[in-house]
Write a structure and sequence with these properties.
alpha+beta; two-stranded parallel sheet; 12 strands; 21% strand; globular
Length: 240
């Protein structure tokens, strides 16, 4: 009986010191607590893996440099905006050059040689001291362009067909240099007039007159079905 009282008193004394005594868990409770801890760790690992996967799926973009565009190279609206090279409007080295009864590109009849060079954005070189068409525009690489000449005697223009050129030379009516006689007649019909002129270098073809000049569609000597030159000459009495 005394030993029981002593044990009880000892138990009360320990409780009186303010130290909490954790209750023992039963085997069932311990098993449930362990399972819950394992589930929490699994959720944390899964969340971290999802974050890593989402980060790896973010697209990586890089900016590729735009290559410079060279004169005469095929052009689109996008390449013109991105390229450092912008041809002057009406220049003879544009991909498309318009020919009318008084102009070739931005160069017009009545201009001086210096004004022609400025308007067409080219340099012309003397190729013959005794010829009518004694100045030729320098365009490089020559294989990509038609041949542009300025006639010294009248400051008229000759545009000679180049079959390997990537350039298009055409009239406002849509007829292109290098087209056929049949296509020309279909395009302009009764507006065309037969044209024959020249002794040393005869010119045969068709012409259309404007207010101050005419455009001549020269028929090729080697291929009579082909128009191989556009010639823009004044019609005020000065011969070309």
């Amino acid at each position: 009986m005394r030993s029981f009282v002593v044990a009880a008193a000892a138990s009360l004394a320990i409780g009186g010191c303010g130290q909490a005594v954790e209750p023992r868990q039963s085997p069932t409770e311990a098993s449930m607590s362990s399972a819950m801890d394992t589930a929490k760790r699994g959720d944390s690992s899964s969340s971290a893996a999802s974050t890593t996967s989402a980060a790896s799926e973010v697209p990586i973009t890089t900016t590729q440099p735009t290559p410079p565009q060279l004169p005469g190279q095929a052009t689109t609206a996008e390449t013109l905006l991105s390229s450092p090279y912008h041809p002057k409007r009406g220049a003879w080295h544009e991909n498309v050059v318009s020919v009318t009864t008084e102009s070739v590109g931005a160069a017009k009849l009545g201009m001086t040689e210096e004004e022609i060079e400025e308007a067409a954005d080219v340099q012309v070189e003397l190729i013959c001291t005794e010829c009518d068409a004694n100045m030729i525009a320098v365009l490089e690489p020559a294989t990509q362009f038609a041949q542009f000449q300025v006639r010294h005697s009248c400051l008229g223009f000759d545009v000679i067909y180049n079959p390997v050129a990537r350039q298009i030379v055409r009239t406002p009516g849509g007829f292109e240099l290098g087209g056929t006689v049949a296509e020309l007649q279909k395009t302009y019909g009764p507006k065309l007039r037969p044209f024959h002129e020249g002794v040393l270098t005869p010119v045969n073809g068709y012409s259309i007159d404007g207010d101050i000049g005419r455009v001549i569609f020269r028929i090729s000597e080697s291929n009579p079905s082909l128009i191989d030159a556009f010639m823009v000459w004044p019609i005020d009495g000065r011969g070309c």
